[in-house]
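Lecture 7 notes: from sequence to structure.

We start with a single chain of 208 residues. Read the sequence below before looking at the structure.
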Amino acid sequence: MTQTTKAGPKVLIPFYSRSGTIEALARAVAEGAAAEGADVRVRRAREMVGHDILSSVPGWKESAEAMNARYPAPTAEDAEWADAVIFGTPTRFGSVASELKAYIDGLGGLWAKGALVGKVGSAFAGSSQQHGGNESTVISLWNPLAHLGFIIVPTGYADPVMFAGAGSPYGASVISGHPPAGPTEAELAVARFQGKRVAQVAKKLNAS
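Now the structure, written as tokens:
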């Protein structure tokens, strides 16, 4: 009897980032998923603010342009292609950034036909200070994930990296400070674990 081997899970990572901090977490999540054999697409949501606002803070405009050159914008086709979607966002007053939320709101057509039901969903976030809303932001993303039919997978305390004082049992996170200093190695380790865990769950669901 010939036995066929299934390809690895397909993982989409749509994120929004201005300074590059969330981008760094997204890349670490992608590394973790790829290490589990996943086919990974990393996508950056596009701006919802005008040129004047982006230009008001040194580096924002240049950073956005550089990231847009590195990553395509996420599409509904990307979400339909994926077995798992891991959303990444900076906190905006304790909730998801409007740029990423606009992408999620654009998935209504897939919701209407149940195209996302049974896929794996997860989220990660970043804030500038310890109590800036990382946990509430990740949990706020579980609401649309539930409406779209995703099977929500948190990080949990499922790996030793979760006990190093970084991230949360809900999802990877970064506390960037002022000015943004980027993720620490402990924060990146949690992000890699999140990618790994989501890919593992997606792989098991595909095998069932």
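The first strand starts at residue 10 and ends at 15. Keep this in mind for problem set 3.
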